[in-house]
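new request in #modeling-help
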Amino acid sequence: MINIIAELSKYFFILCLAFYTFNGFIVFRYPDHEDQRSFYIIQNVFMMMFHAAGYAILILKGWDEGLIFFYAVQLVLILAFIILYRVIYPKSQPLIINNLCMLLCVSFVMLQRLSSSKCVRQFIIAVAGMVIALVVPFLMKFAKAVFTHLTFIWGIVGIAILGVVLILGSVTYGSKLSFTIRNITFQPSEAVKIIFVFFVAGMLYEDQSIKRIIITTVFALAHIGILALSRDLGSALIFFVVYVMMLYVATGKVRYLLGGFLMGAVCAVTGFKLFSHVRTRVIAFLDPWSHIDGQGYQITQSLFAIGTGGWFGMGLGGGTPKKIPVVEADFIFAAISEEFGCLFGICIILVCMSNFLMFINIALKIKDDFLRLVALGFSVVYGFQMFLTIGGVTKFIPLTGVTLPLLSYGGTSVIVTLIMFAVIQGIYSMRDRGAGNDEA
Amino acid sequence: MTKPDNGSYKNQIHVVMSLFTLLFLVMMGYFAYYVQFSSIDDINNTYNPRQETLAQKVVRGKIISADGQTLAYTQEGNGTEERIYPYGSIFAHVVGYTGKGKSGIEQIANISLLTSNASLNEKLSSEMAEKKNIGDNIITTLDTDVQKTAYDALGLYKGAVVAMDPDTGRIIAMASNPGFDPNTIAKDWDELNTMTATSPLLNRATQGLYPPGSTFKIVTLLEYLRENADCEDYAFNCKGSFTYDGVTIRCYHGSVHGQIDLKTSFAKSCNSSFANIGSSLNNTSFRKTAGDLLFNEELPIKLNYRQSVFELTGKSDTEEKLHTAIGQGKTVISPLHMAMITAAIADGGMSKKPYVIDRIENYTGETVKKYEPSNYKRLMSDKEANFIDGYMKEVVQSGTGTKLLNQPYEAAGKTGSAEFGSTKGESHAWFTGYAAQNDRRLVVTVIIEGAGSGSDYAVPAAKRVFDTYFGKYGT
């Protein structure tokens, strides 16, 4: 009997997320907020059905029965977050909130299956992050004042934080990414992303003179250089792409876009020639099967998981995702795809993509140039990071070792993503403000 | 300065949005394509720890020959499963075994055999009944009649036969002797592994490395052609032996071939003449030509195989050089590789990927995946292939392969008698060649260990395989 339920649950999970995703896309067709509301409520229903079914299957399959309590606490948190956001910020964007909660639900269920203790920690961090996310939109009123005066200080702050990590940081998987204070591990490069986007927006929103561009570029290159020295290639790439995109949008000059990518290509080739860890990643990408015991191990294990799972997956608890190294963090997408199936995986990509499109839409709607650049910057951070990690684990592009926002286990990543979502909410609620002269 | 108007960034933002949307869509397309089409080859890897999980849910599928005969199936008893191989040792190496590890098709198609593409309805109802699903079937390219003939042709000798369609790369037969009974592999396992003198578990067709003997003159001929545009003007007076730099090479069986040109040297397999040719060759470019023909290279096949070796380098001495030119020395080759080179000559210089799995079907016979023929690499130019083709035809017309004359099919080939070990006169019998009748063509490569000369032992064995194949499909 349990087998039948487990088998049927595979299709139920896919249907829940598929309907959820579908409702998320049709709202784009209804500009009127009142019309959209029913779709958002349907989304909440599918989200809760998924969450409940996920925990039910885990309990049925013999995971700890005490989970029912933990499940209830999660449900309360998610409902409380959705309701509080509605009440405190009536002008907030519900799709972003829904997507955030949906992705967290998937993350909780998947982490519960992979490692209870990590799921509990993810939950605690999510609580902290949600509290911060409730405050951030309010603080956005001051953001412009803070980041547009003495902007360069924020550039120095970012460089300083990254520099400290480079010198003091502990090495994880060949990259200097984090340091630990009292058992809590920080990944400052994640947090610096936020400061960096504000910094670039502050530098370029008003003055696009050559002198200004050169100064900003020097600061950006310093960030990227330190990250490259820390061997954090994924983050270096994200900062690079975000800067090129923001510069292009601010100046409107295609030559910056093309020049940026040309320079990126030159740096990539140089990096390949100079650094063995870059070569390792490229080798693992080009021919993982010949190096299945070494450089290719991670990616081939990930492909085994995805391929064996197929379209419909092995069923929650039915696969062997733990064979993939760092599965809870960088490879969470492979685990999701193995157990929930590739169709589910495609829905996850679509949900992330709808986040990106919503962010970009807000960037288009907002009238203030500074906030517009900030929204654009965060869209690119989010979209590109998701592209790097999903593209990496499916071997579409070489692995870069970045997390999948909200789904991967990882404290800093979850908090930073929640803050980014909240910043976007804050910007959205200021959409009716004037054209960049609100201080006047 | 003038303030940009409100629409200032809109165009650029649209560009960024389109760029990323495109990126996501391509990535999703790639992901779906991978899962649907490519992943099946990747996940069938012994490093994939998920294969055991699948075996608990699915009854292993059948392996079926191209002519519809069952080569392996699983019989379910009271909670037990037994793998039955109706043809016993005849297909033992290529179909392989499962239980004590896996080999052959059982290994390379393991995941497909353990995957059920039955309809969703059916899968659910077997879940309801707590029954296992039925795994997919593998339809091979192998023909039972040709395989039986190939296996019988080896008789009591150790050796291997490969039969392949040069137009597609389909393996029609792959026999290796001595064999073993895959039905009783678990019981016989320990004993089979102690038989180091005969190594019955070894698939000699892909894992056996043999000195090529005179069949290697194909490579020497190609190199001579590449170094000498006027090679057809070549003339040599064979007195039964050839001495150069103090190294003497003798013709097989003490033959004296007299005044001969290049074509006759090849057709009669004159060692003295080819040693003379070898003495003139440039070692470095000889090595490159051997590399073009996939010596010291990987072969495009998933079955376990060993790589052929060509050791001659720019630093090698005269003795090694002359011996290499006539296929002795340190060069070794697998029968499958020899068949691939032969197939490339038959097909204008292009080698096809050899393959043994034609398609995967679910148990009701619906095709799940079909494997199409594909080119692998160009081993030589079209012109070079035609040149060698003419020479190989002459071997059958007037040389060492005349036993293949006057058949319903037209044959071409090259024989070889590869000396091995220290005892003088002991040699492996080789034949590699192809024949055509109407639209059908077949490459056959035969190696019979320790039998004697290629023309006496390997050619008749190849003839039996040609007779069976063209008797069945030629008309």
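bot summary: The beta strands of chain A are 170-172, 175-181, 184-186.
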